[in-house]
């Protein structure tokens, strides 16, 4: 509210998640909360304030924080996009992007402008300042803000980021309401930005406190939200019948219904970029699968989109581009829910966009982003894989019998490399329905001349007697050491553990995530249920074909499962080989939130 | 026994070609065949029991060799041998008056026999069973088969009685008793489902979530019975690759109105945290309480142990095998065709690769059975009730005799 209020960080540390590690310049935490001024302030004053705010912010960002520093979002009070605070909240938004569905879908309608993002920055930024506002005072301020908002309605903001936050935090109904109100607005101008900023910053502190916890994802069991999401969706999906009760909180659609519709709309693309559309279709059809593959495909599509991007007049490049990226992401989510690797990559991209220095011209900004994407792919995926292979190769000895499950790109690289080095070993490929990914891996390994045995997951107890090492890939590794990977991995790790065989999980560091999961049901992806009925090669197994509509029968096709950490002997990442991963994950994940390499 | 040979040959062929599969069908047909063998057997004058047993052993050897993995065959053969012994003892005991039955035995009951010359056949049969179960040290050390002792007692009884006319009636009676007992055995095999299903209400209450893998008729009947009694439960059925019998079970359950969810085998670990009980069938139960079950069961048992979910095995008593499982993964297993897993057409180009020493680069492993160690099993539900794995040896001792473990024809000239 005003300078009297101490920054939230020194208020006694209510913040659990994000801590200051390292040196912080005093400017960062004590920036005058200009947006907290009540709506009575002249709207015209705000643009000046915002523009005045940005140069100091941009000066601040490069030198103020050491590379190790992880600035909590609330300590940065900037309006400008170039500060770490928007970066932090951008990452939070990115987090929302990853995990929320409806709000991202909501953004599709109003796709331009992202001043709501700034709004959210200010929410987080200025909350610590006004912690001691009494309830009545806050209410008065809110009323004033609403009046100002009504006045500034014609220059409304895009509902995107607001929708994001609102969708992701269903508990915060007030916030949602105000965001939804703002969704009806058009592309903002500076004045309305200020007005809405003012409104937003007056939110009570509890909301911000709640923001620190990882947001709950889109609640698919809440009918109203699902309905709203459906209205804004590009992709028409019909909900599958016979949904398993236990998984009501996850989306389940009838597969195969979207693809023809999307294909026909290929040339009515606005506002979708063709390469993004193509990637979305590839996800839907299953042509591109696997954490690394999907992430790289998505980033390359974004690179194309950025190349073709041109800033609309009177708009800020970074805000507009972020909004565009968010709309693309929401489309991709509708095709197939994001993997954790994709979520982290999106967060990185938004971070880079937000941190673009304002002095860059459009073409320079675009090329900088494109090189950032290339750098990400190269450093975090390609080189990381090479490092993992070099670590893991030390674990492959002569006369080893290595078991792997499904088809992991990293494990395949390890096996190829070991074979090239001339190690004598043989591989057991374990596979399972319905994806049968192991068959592809088997074919590729045999073609290279590696001695392979193929079996299905039920036979792992039989085959485990012969095995010396188990190599597994992962979609992600969570903060409590749980390995989140293809369904069936947990069973393989369990049986290997029962037989006393070391289990080595190979995962690039960019796939780590800070959330925690105890079992495979809290968060998962539901695949096409009908594929369970169809057993390839066995036409006579049509037992259940006619029963699909029976209400007593449900089909469950899980995509992922969570392997408890005690089954894993060692995790091989590009940062080394570790057994206890939790501290590593905390550090490296948080680095995505703030400063990035 | 010339009349019976074609029947035996036919059955042996069926077993060899796996035309008859499944413990229930195999057990029933084996019992019926053995009943025919017994009825066709011509009883000699002396040592009828031993001769009969030997004839059974001869047939049994052939049957077991036809399909060594189908343990139900051996189980029934050994049951019949045990029946022969029991019937022989009881009929001998009835025939004996004023003669101690087991002069060789050290059982304390026998000292009482001197005082009570006339004992009911049942009591004497029980005594004999004791003798069978706990062979005397003397017989063990001297390696005298109990049947020989019995035959000696029988012959001595016959001699002392001096009623040679009774022998023919005795032999007829023995055969008659054995056939009747085998008929009882067949009934037992047929009614095992009912008896096991009766126990369903004790274990399934309200709002249960049950997991099963593949399809077992015993499990199906078990769940049907619980549904009849209006217990509310839902079932997760894992497909059971590569036979996918889980689909069949799911269809049957859905038709009865049970809420069923079909899951893939890989999802068992994921779902088992929400399951109250795992109920599965078995192919065979071994003497140590270990279970030979369709492939994938060990994975389910380990997952159940991890999540502290009771792992219940339902099986009829004809699946109880007196053998101890040595290296069961290999010796009591069968590898089926790789075509279940890989399509030959698709992978034909991979099959041509080979290393220098001619071994193929691509192997496919498709085992039929899995071994579940007794420590992973919480409960066995058989037609005699519920038992823990450590109790199974007692049941086995009741149904089988110790020296029938190896079914091998012996020459019949051991006695007299």
From TrEMBL, chain A:
Family (UniProt): Belongs to the eIF-2B alpha/beta/delta subunits family.
Taxonomic lineage: Eukaryota, Viridiplantae, Streptophyta, Embryophyta, Tracheophyta
Superkingdom of this protein's organism: Eukaryota
Compartments reported by the entry: Cytoplasm, Cytosol
GO cellular component assignments: cytosol
Biased composition (Polar residues): 121-131
Record keywords, A-Z: Cytoplasm, Initiation factor, Protein biosynthesis
UniProt feature, compositional bias: Low complexity: 26-67, 80-91, 142-154
Disordered: region residues: 1-220
Pfam family, one: IF-2B
GO MF annotation list: translation initiation factor activity
Quaternary organization: Component of the translation initiation factor 2B (eIF2B) complex which is a heterodecamer of two sets of five different subunits: alpha, beta, gamma, delta and epsilon. Subunits alpha, beta and delta comprise a regulatory subcomplex and subunits epsilon and gamma comprise a catalytic subcomplex. Within the complex, the hexameric regulatory complex resides at the center, with the two heterodimeric catalytic subcomplexes bound on opposite sides.
Annotated protein name in UniProt: Translation initiation factor eIF2B subunit delta
Chief location bin: cytoplasm
Biased composition (Basic and acidic residues): 109-120, 196-220
TrEMBL record, chain B:
Database matches in InterPro entries: eIF2B_beta_subunit, IF-2B-related, IF_2B-like_C, NagB/RpiA_transferase-like
One CC-aspect GO term: cytosol
Classification via Pfam families: IF-2B (PF01008)
Descriptive protein name: Translation initiation factor eIF2B subunit beta
Quaternary structure (record): Component of the translation initiation factor 2B (eIF2B) complex which is a heterodecamer of two sets of five different subunits: alpha, beta, gamma, delta and epsilon. Subunits alpha, beta and delta comprise a regulatory subcomplex and subunits epsilon and gamma comprise a catalytic subcomplex. Within the complex, the hexameric regulatory complex resides at the center, with the two heterodimeric catalytic subcomplexes bound on opposite sides.
Gene Ontology terms for molecular function: guanyl-nucleotide exchange factor activity; translation initiation factor activity
Coiled coil regions, renumbered to chain: none
Subcellular location: Cytoplasm, Cytosol
Record's keyword terms, sorted: Cytoplasm, Initiation factor, Protein biosynthesis
Lineage top rank: taxon: Eukaryota
């Amino acid at each position: 509210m005003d300078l009297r209020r101490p920054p939230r960080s020194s208020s006694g540390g209510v913040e659990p998640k994000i801590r200051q590690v390292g040196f912080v310049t005093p400017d960062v935490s004590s920036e005058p909360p200009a947006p907290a001024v009540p709506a009575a302030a002249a709207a015209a004053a705000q643009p000046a304030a915002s523009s005045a705010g940005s140069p100091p912010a941009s000066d601040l960002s490069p030198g103020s924080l050491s590379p190790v520093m992880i600035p909590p979002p609330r300590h940065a009070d900037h309006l400008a996009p170039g500060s770490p605070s928007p970066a932090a909240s951008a990452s939070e938004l990115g987090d929302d992007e990853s995990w929320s569905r409806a709000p991202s879908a909501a953004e599709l309608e109003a796709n331009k402008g992202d001043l709501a993002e700034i709004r959210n920055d200010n929410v987080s930024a200025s909350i610590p300042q006004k912690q001691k506002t009494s309830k009545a005072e806050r209410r008065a301020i809110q009323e004033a803000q609403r009046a100002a908002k009504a006045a500034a309605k014609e220059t409304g903001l895009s509902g995107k980021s607001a929708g994001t936050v609102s969708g992701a935090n269903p508990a915060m109904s007030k916030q949602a309401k105000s965001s939804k109100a703002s969704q009806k607005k058009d592309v903002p101008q500076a004045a309305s930005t200020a007005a809405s900023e003012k409104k937003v910053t007056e939110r009570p502190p509890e909301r911000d406190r709640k923001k620190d916890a990882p947001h709950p994802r889109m609640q698919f069991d809440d009918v109203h939200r699902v309905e709203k999401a459906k209205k804004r969706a590009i992709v028409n999906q019909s909900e599958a019948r016979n949904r398993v009760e236990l998984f009501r909180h996850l989306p389940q659609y009838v597969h195969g219904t979207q693809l023809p519709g999307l294909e026909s709309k290929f040339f009515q693309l606005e506002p979708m970029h063709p390469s993004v559309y193509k990637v979305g279709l590839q996800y839907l059809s299953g042509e591109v699968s696997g954490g690394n593959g999907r992430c790289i495909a998505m980033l390359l599509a974004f690179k194309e989109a950025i190349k073709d991007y041109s800033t609309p007049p009177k708009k800020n490049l970074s805000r507009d581009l972020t909004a565009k990226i968010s709309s693309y992401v929401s489309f991709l989510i509708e095709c197939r829910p994001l993997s954790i690797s994709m979520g982290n990559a999106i967060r990185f991209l938004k971070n880079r966009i937000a941190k673009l220095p304002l002095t860059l011209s459009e073409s320079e900004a675009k090329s900088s982003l494109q090189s950032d994407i290339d750098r990400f792919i190269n450093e975090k995926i390609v080189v990381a894989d090479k490092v993992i292979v070099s670590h893991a190769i030390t674990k492959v000895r002569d006369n080893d019998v290595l078991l792997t499950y499904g088809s992991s790109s990293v494990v395949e690289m390890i096996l190829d490399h070991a074979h090239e080095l001339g190690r004598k070993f043989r591989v057991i490929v374990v596979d399972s329905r319905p994806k049968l990914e192991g068959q592809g891996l088997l074919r590729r390994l045999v073609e290279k001349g590696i001695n392979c045995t193929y079996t299905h997951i039920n036979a792992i107890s039989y085959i485990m007697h012969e095995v010396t090492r188990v190599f597994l890939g992962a979609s992600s590794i969570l903060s409590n050491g749980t390995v989140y990977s293809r369904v069936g991995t947990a069973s393989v790790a369990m049986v290997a553990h029962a037989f006393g065989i070391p289990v080595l999980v190979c995962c690039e560091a960019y796939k780590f995530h800070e959330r925690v999961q105890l079992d495979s049901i809290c968060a998962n992806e539901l695949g096409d249920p009908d594929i369970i009925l169809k057993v390839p090669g066995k036409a006579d197994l049509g037992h259940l074909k006619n029963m699909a509509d029976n209400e007593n029968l449900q089909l469950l096709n899980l995509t992922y499962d969570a392997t408890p950490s005690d089954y894993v002997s060692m995790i091989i990442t590009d940062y080394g080989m570790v057994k206890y991963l939790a501290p590593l994950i905390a550090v490296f994940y948080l680095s995505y939130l703030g400063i990035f390499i | 026994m010339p009349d019976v040979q074609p029947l035996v040959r036919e059955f042996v062929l069926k077993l060899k070609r796996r035309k008859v599969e499944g413990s229930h069908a195999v057990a029933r047909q084996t019992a019926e065949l053995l009943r025919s063998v017994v009825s066709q057997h011509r009883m000699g004058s002396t040592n009828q029991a031993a001769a009969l047993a030997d004839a059974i052993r001869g047939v049994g050897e052939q049957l077991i060799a036809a399909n060594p993995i189908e343990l139900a065959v051996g189980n029934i053969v050994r049951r019949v041998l045990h029946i022969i012994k029991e019937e022989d003892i009881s009929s001998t005991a009835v025939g004996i008056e004023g003669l101690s039955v087991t002069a060789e035995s050290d059982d304390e009951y026998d000292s009482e026999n001197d005082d009570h010359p006339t004992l009911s056949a049942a009591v004497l049969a029980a005594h004999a069973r004791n003798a069978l179960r706990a062979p005397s040290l003397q017989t063990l050390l001297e390696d005298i088969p109990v049947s020989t002792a019995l035959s000696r007692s029988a012959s001595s009884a016959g001699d002392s009685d001096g009623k040679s006319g009774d022998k023919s009636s005795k032999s007829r009676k023995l055969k008659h008793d054995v056939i009747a007992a085998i008929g009882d055995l067949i009934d037992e095999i047929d009614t095992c489902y009912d008896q096991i299903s009766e126990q369903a209400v004790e274990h399934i209450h309200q709002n249960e979530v049950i997991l099963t893998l593949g399809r077992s008729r015993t499990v199906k009947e078990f769940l049907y019975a619980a549904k009849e009694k209006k217990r509310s439960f839902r079932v997760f059925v894992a497909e059971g690759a590569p036979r996918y019998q889980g689909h069949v079970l799911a269809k049957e359950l859905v038709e009865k109105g049970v809420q069923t969810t079909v899951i893939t085998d890989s999802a068992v670990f994921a779902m088992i945290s929400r399951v109250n009980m795992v109920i599965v069938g078995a192919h065979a139960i071994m003497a140590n309480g270990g279970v030979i079950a369709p492939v994938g069961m060990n994975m389910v048992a380990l997952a159940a142990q991890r999540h502290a979910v009771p792992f219940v095995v339902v099986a009829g008593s004809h699946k109880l095998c007196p053998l101890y499982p040595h290296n069961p993964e290999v010796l009591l297993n069968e590898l089926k065709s790789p075509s279940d897993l890989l399509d030959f057409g698709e992978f034909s180009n991979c099959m041509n690769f080979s290393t220098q020493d001619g071994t193929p680069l691509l192997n496919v492993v498709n085992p039929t059975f899995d071994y579940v160690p007794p420590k992973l099993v919480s409960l066995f539900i058989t037609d005699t009730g519920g038992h823990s794995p450590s109790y199974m040896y007692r049941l086995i001792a009741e149904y089988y005799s110790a020296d029938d473990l190896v079914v091998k024809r012996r020459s019949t000239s051991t006695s007299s």
